[in-house]
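Q&A FORM
Asked by: J.P.
Topic: structure of Peptidase S24/S26A/S26B/S26C domain-containing protein

PROVIDED:
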Amino acid sequence: MTVLGRVGLAVAAAAAGAVVGRLVARTRAVAVSGPSMVPTLRDGDALLAYPVGRVRPGDVVIARFTARPDLLVVKRAVRPYGGGWWVEGDNPFVSDDSRTYGEAAVLARVIVRYWRADA
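REPLIED BY: S.T.
REPLY: Here is the structure written out as tokens.
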């Protein structure tokens, strides 16, 4: 490999490292509490969430309701609603979600479940 090729490879590796480092630094761990997302998620599951970029309907998200800013929830984004999102739990029989509290501000998108509570 030429010197120029090695320099280019080093620059590309450094840039990739910076991007990965930034992603890791902004990622947050979240624990599921309650049955509102059963069967997808269970009480005690551990998740990694990334501060919001692009949210799509169907994404599992971390949100706060405008009507209940003290309540941090894990729900599924259904559709844009008002200035935020309509979010619902996967278990409608026990979920307090937008059907109860209305619009929610999405704070982060869940990217992976890294610990399954029943495993």
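FOLLOW-UP: The first strand starts at residue 28 and ends at 31.
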